[in-house]
Design a protein that fits this description.
The chain is of the alpha/beta class. It contains eight helices and nine strands. A hairpin with a 2-residue loop joins strand 5 and strand 6.
């Protein structure tokens, strides 16, 4: 049976590059899968249902909340966002590591319900860089950009200290490599490798190898 995959939560301000970093790692590591979140916000130009998000009406989203179908959910900037439970559990049972790119409130819910989850916060190197990245996307109005910056300063960045790791996203490649190292490191713990060491020693004994 495959070893159960890890649950990795990736959070940070809008514009920090969370999705890009997660996508870069998933491209290079077949054991890593990105959970597709559900949202009640309208679909933007170029987005595809089931690829970028599972787009639900507000009524459908609230019905799934009542049915207990979400691992977590949160209201952000007037819209619901959440992680459907079934696809995450299926991937983990197959030994794949699942990355949830979610808001800080959802991350807190995940930690309470899944103590083994690894929480990673992604931040830009400076506030000016965060603002520049939001403006360069050209997908939000000036008022919406200001709201996102306000949320970053008042609700998101102050909670970075509650995460297990912080990645400063200077470049996507470096940040993806750091995220991969964070996911891989736990499998190198002594407790997980004692069986291998014991097997090597048993094989050596069988070959009549003794210490010099």
């Amino acid at each position: 049976m495959s070893k159960r995959g890890r649950l990795v939560v990736l959070s940070g301000p809008s514009g920090a590059g969370k999705d890009t970093v997660a996508g870069k790692l998933a491209e290079s590591d077949p054991c890593v899968v990105i959970s597709v979140s559900a949202t009640s916000r309208p679909k933007r130009e170029g987005e595809a249902d089931g690829v970028d998000y599972h787009f639900l009406s507000r009524e459908d989203f609230e019905a799934k909340i009542d049915a207990g179908e979400f691992l977590e959910h949160a209201l952000y900037n007037g819209n619901y966002y959440g992680t459907l439970r079934a696809p995450v559990e299926q991937c983990r049972s197959m030994g794949r590591h699942v990355i949830l790119v979610i808001e800080v409130k959802g991350a807190k819910d995940i930690r309470l319900r899944n103590p083994d989850a690894v929480l990673v916060f992604v931040t830009p190197p400076s506030f000016s860089e965060l603002k520049a990245r939001l403006e360069s996307r050209r997908t939000e109005s000036r008022d919406d950009i200001q709201r996102r910056l306000n949320i970053a300063v008042t609700e998101e960045l102050p909670l970075a200290k509650q995460y297990d790791y912080i990645i400063v996203n200077h470049t996507v490649g470096e940040s993806a490599a750091e995220l991969g190292a964070i996911i891989t490191a736990p499998q190198c713990r002594r407790e997980d490798r004692n069986g291998l060491i014991g097997k090597i020693l048993q094989d050596a004994k069988a070959e009549n190898v003794s210490a010099y």
